[in-house]
Backbone:
């Protein structure tokens, strides 16, 4: 990850996407853009550029060390918002945040220096579910636009492996659920229209 994070932070998206790493998959090498999940690298790169824009001197390595704790802390806060949105009470939000914060696999990804794709993926998933529920409850276009962004981030962030990613599956459930809600709504409307049309009219 060390070479890739420096390319992403210092040379930008296009250079990262076309970067050829001749030190991995020896002797063939590897085109990085098509063979990696860039969510973690882009998160660290975005945080690095944001800190530099605020005038804070930092190194990309320091940012990468703190990505896990920062994203995990935000994830626990979003879990609180999610629980509060579901039940409408602060107690439900606190329970939700507590349960996420005490999961051992989540704790292992919140340690400083744990530069792991799952640290970003878990946060993106929790935020995706919160924004989806918020969009359904409020109908806000701002929440819907943010939902689109973080659904894509959840798909880009999983750990590279030969197994199918749970993040991609879960992120795919949001549009599937939205489509089923739309079809159910239109189906119910069509059924009500047909029943009203066929009902006998009173004199």
Residues:
């Amino acid at each position: 990850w060390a070479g890739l994070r420096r390319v992403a932070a210092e040379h930008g998206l296009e250079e990262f996407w076309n970067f050829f790493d001749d030190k991995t998959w020896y002797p063939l090498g590897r085109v990085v853009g098509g063979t990696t999940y860039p969510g973690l690298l882009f998160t660290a790169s975005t945080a690095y550029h944001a800190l530099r824009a605020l005038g804070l001197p930092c190194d990309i390595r320091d940012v990468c060390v703190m990505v896990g704790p920062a994203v995990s802390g935000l994830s626990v806060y979003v879990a609180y918002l999610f629980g509060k949105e579901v039940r409408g009470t602060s107690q439900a939000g606190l329970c939700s945040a507590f349960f996420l914060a005490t999961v051992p696999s989540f704790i292992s990804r919140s340690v400083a220096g744990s530069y792991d794709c799952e640290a970003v993926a878990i946060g993106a998933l929790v935020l995706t579910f919160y924004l989806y529920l918020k969009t359904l409850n409020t109908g806000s276009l701002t929440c819907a636009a943010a939902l689109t962004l973080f659904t894509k981030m959840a798909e880009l962030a999983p750990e590279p492996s030969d197994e199918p990613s749970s993040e991609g599956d879960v992120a795919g459930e949001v549009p599937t659920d939205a489509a089923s809600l739309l079809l159910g709504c239109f189906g119910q409307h069509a059924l009500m229209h047909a029943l009203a049309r066929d009902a006998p009219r009173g004199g």
Notes: Helices lie at 2-18, 39-53, 60-87, 90-101, 104-107, 117-138, 141-156, 166-198. The longest helix spans residues 166-198.
